[in-house]
Amino acid sequence: MTTEVRVPTLGESVTEATVATWFKKPGDSVNADEMLCELETDKVTVEVPSPAAGTLGEIVAGEGETVGVDALLATLTEANGTAAAPAAAETKAAAAPAPSDASSGGGSAPVPVMVPALGESVSEATVSSWFKKVGDSVAQDEMLCELETDKVSVEVPAPASGVLTEILAEEGATVNAGGKLAVMSAGEAGAAGGTDAGPAAEADGATSTGQGTGVKNAPSAEKAMAEAGIDASQVKGTGRDGRIMKEDVAAALAAAKSAPASAPAPAQVRGPVTADDAAREERVKMTRLRQTIAKRLKDAQNTAAILTTYNEVDMTEVMALRNQYKDQFEKKHGVRLGFMSFFTKACCHALKEVPEVNAEIDGTDIVYKNFVHMGVAAGTPQGLVVPVIRDADAMSFAEIEKAIAEKGKRARDGKLSMAEMQGGTFTISNGGVYGSLMSSPILNPPQSGILGMHKIQDRPMVVNGEIKIRPMMYLALSYDHRIVDGKGAVTFLVRVKEALEDPRRLLMDL
């Protein structure tokens, strides 16, 4: 039975497209919904799937031809009887490669190792470490490598048991979401030398550079590059397997045109270094996380009108309450009672009275948050991260302590997801754990406030006309003066101080 492959609907007001690439050639076996070709319109790229399993017959519209909606692209002979067996076997092999495939005499099918989803708004990562090398046997779900994004580290597990036959993205290479990292041979180690690895590597080389010989650029893109007089190496392809599309050429031309106007300030020039000093230096490339931290901190200084106000709090009552109930608290709730839950509760109460500290600027609007997603800054070997405790204002002391302990452990282990570090409305940073006596924290954009905690230190204080030794802590509130006035900032800090010096106010919502 012959089936026609036709041009699908291309979108509103789009009536024609150019055949950019055929992924199959006449005589190839295809599965239902397997991609046959790619069409390019003036707005989008459209992939055309196979309507059924079978064998591709005649290709009516070749690459570079312009076709209208519902035009005939190719014919397909549907599989029946014995003809269906190759497609079925191919589907089975792709779905579940097993050791029995290797013993059938035909060798194991190559299994690609792909870059997983990296999170919202994250499109690329750097390969930081490979845990396996070519030729190593691996079990399914065993960790192959680790990727580093701007915010988190992502471990990549093996999609199947087998042998790692080729690494396509070495340590330090930048890869895109959905790109290919390596090729595995599923099943026994004897299948590691399969001949399919070569074409796979060639195709992925084209993916990473966009200029590989195995990938053809869109005809319209070739024409645009020729007219503009630019080389393909100057354009980053965003199409399938790194193919350069027409819009990629336009983007490259626009970037080149705006480059002189938006060129960044020259990097700081190092002073003269003697040969002896140079021999004793060590140069280490900044991690993507450290680069992002640097950029965000500088952006915060360049954007917000950051001001800091200070106060000090007598921790006597909080420490006495904690010492009195910490054993019972841990026995009942299974988590230690720390100071962070007191500070989180105090901040949530103060934010209700001074809502602008819990707000953010969006263009010419001020967005007030009727909830508190509390960011808790945590230092890790990789750098500073800020996991977010959602709806902290609705949590009990025990729930807050459990959330902080869990987020802190995940941060140290590098297991935090993107979602766990997004959406915070206010942040607490505890520099006191490192011995800091006083500091001015920097805002975590787009938030308008951050509270800095510091070291608890015994100091002589005047209490009711008498000098007494008290455990004191300096507090620092950095805020965005564009939205928070001095009165609001001082009021917030005073309310936090009052709640901590008399914790009963927290219970009575005062």
UniProtKB/TrEMBL annotation:
Protein name: Dihydrolipoyllysine-residue succinyltransferase component of 2-oxoglutarate dehydrogenase complex
CDD domains: lipoyl_domain
EC numbers on record: 2.3.1.61
Gene3D superfamilies xref list: 2.40.50.100, Chloramphenicol acetyltransferase-like domain, E3-binding domain
Pfam families with a match to the protein in the record: 2-oxoacid_dh (PF00198), Biotin_lipoyl (PF00364), E3_binding (PF02817)
NCBIfam families: PRK05704.1 (NF004309), sucB (TIGR01347)
GO molecular function, one term: dihydrolipoyllysine-residue succinyltransferase activity
Biased composition (Low complexity): 197-207
Catalytic reaction annotation: N(6)-[(R)-dihydrolipoyl]-L-lysyl-[protein] + succinyl-CoA = N(6)-[(R)-S(8)-succinyldihydrolipoyl]-L-lysyl-[protein] + CoA
Highest rank taxon of the organism: Bacteria
Record domain Lipoyl-binding: where: 2-77, 110-185
Protein task: E2 component of the 2-oxoglutarate dehydrogenase (OGDH) complex which catalyzes the second step in the conversion of 2-oxoglutarate to succinyl-CoA and CO(2).
Pathway: Amino-acid degradation; L-lysine degradation via saccharopine pathway; glutaryl-CoA from L-lysine: step 6/6
Similarity section: Belongs to the 2-oxoacid dehydrogenase family.
Region of interest: Disordered: 189-217
Domain Peripheral subunit-binding (PSBD): 216-253
Keywords tagged on the record: Acyltransferase, Lipoyl, Transferase, Tricarboxylic acid cycle
Names of required cofactors: (R)-lipoate
